[in-house]
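User: tokens in, sequence out, please.
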């Protein structure tokens, strides 16, 4: 009996040993599987962090083309972004996702891509308060620009002229005026003007084939019910005489000159919200004293762009107390006289005479204009890759 009990005990011990081995093997397998699952989970998290870094970089570049990268913390870890200018309006973006943090990067993955400024069906990016071609910027006494400036020529200032922001010039920047509160960057690389497709807007203005033949002139006092116009093509000039009002409901194409006289008011219909529209003018643009162009009340605001390919000197003239417009004149000079005010200028040449002011709206960095193409940063197809 004792011998039999000993055999049973030995057998039980063998079975127990086998079970322990199996449990140990299973535990090891589960531990290994858990470790592998944790590894792949953290690696996927870091890939998502890296992709978030690329998305953040593109968003930042739309409002600040000089953006060079950052390190940012999110709930699942950190991402580190670097931006490299590779010429031809292209930039290389590289983002590294780290878990649990950039300082303690136990798990990481990196992605790289290239972006460029391309056409978009709804947006045009005005990155600077003033963006000027090779004829440069001249500021006379007490002229002010509130925002960043980029000139493909020189920047020349006279007594008490001021720039509240960073200033870039392919050529020189005079001293001691203008006074510059930000960084001074002479010898900068050439920066193309924002892109606006004139033919697109001309076609959009005449989409209903209902053009006004000859001149369009508004007279009389502003009525309680403000008249509307747009989309519309005008084959002659477009003139708003003193005390007149008009509300724009779509793009306009004016084959002659465009002129607003004293106390005339041009409104953008509130239905545009934070979007805007364009008035294309073949001739010159002249805004006389106390004429005013109204944005929408949305946040961010919607604006009217006055755009001309005219190469005149000036192609655009704004006189005292005329204000609140966006001016686009890639081939000509924009001249703003005493107390004239605008929110953005992109032109071949800009002259700010005494007491003229330009007050940039940050919302223009990613503004939209209904049915109109423009420039913004986007990924170049085929350049997205994971960095091994």
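Assistant: Sequence out:
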């Amino acid at each position: 009996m004792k011998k039999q009990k000993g055999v049973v005990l030995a057998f039980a011990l063998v079975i127990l040993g086998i079970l322990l081995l199996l449990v140990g093997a299973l535990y090891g397998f589960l531990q290994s599987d858990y470790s592998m699952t944790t590894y792949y989970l953290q690696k996927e998290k870091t890939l998502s962090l890296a992709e978030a870094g690329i998305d953040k970089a593109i968003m930042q570049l739309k409002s600040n083309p000089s953006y060079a990268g950052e390190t940012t913390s999110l709930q699942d870890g950190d991402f580190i972004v670097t931006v490299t200018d590779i010429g031809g309006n292209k930039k290389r973006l590289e983002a590294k996702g780290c878990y649990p943090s950039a300082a303690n990067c136990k798990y990481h993955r990196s992605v790289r891509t290239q972006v460029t400024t391309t056409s978009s069906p709804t947006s045009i990016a005005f990155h600077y308060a003033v963006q000027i071609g090779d004829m440069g910027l001249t500021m006379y006494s007490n002229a002010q620009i509130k925002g960043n400036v980029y000139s493909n020529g020189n920047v020349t200032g006279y007594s008490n002229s001021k720039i509240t922001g960073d200033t870039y010039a392919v050529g020189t920047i005079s001293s001691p005026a203008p006074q510059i509160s930000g960084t001074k960057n002479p010898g900068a690389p050439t920066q193309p003007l924002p892109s606006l497709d004139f033919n697109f807007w001309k076609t959009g203005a005449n989409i209903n084939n209902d053009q006004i033949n000859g001149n369009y002139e508004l007279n009389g006092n502003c009525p309680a019910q403000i008249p509307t116009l747009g989309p519309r093509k005008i084959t002659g000039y477009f003139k708003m005489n003193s005390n007149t009002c008009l509300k724009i409901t779509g793009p306009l194409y004016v084959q002659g000159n465009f002129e607003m006289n004293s106390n005339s008011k041009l409104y953008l219909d509130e239905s545009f919200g934070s979007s805007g529209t364009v008035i294309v003018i073949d001739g010159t643009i002249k805004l006389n004293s106390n004429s005013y162009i109204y944005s929408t009340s949305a946040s961010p605001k919607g604006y009217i762009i006055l755009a001309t390919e005219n190469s005149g000197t000036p192609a655009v003239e704004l006189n005292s107390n005329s204000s609140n417009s966006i001016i686009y004149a890639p081939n000509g000079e924009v001249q703003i006289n005493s107390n004239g005010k605008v929110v953005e200028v992109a032109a071949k040449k800009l002259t700010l005479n005494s007491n003229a002011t330009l007050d940039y709206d940050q919302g223009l960095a990613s503004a939209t204009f209904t049915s109109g193409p423009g420039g913004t940063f986007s990924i170049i197809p085929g350049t997205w890759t994971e960095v091994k």
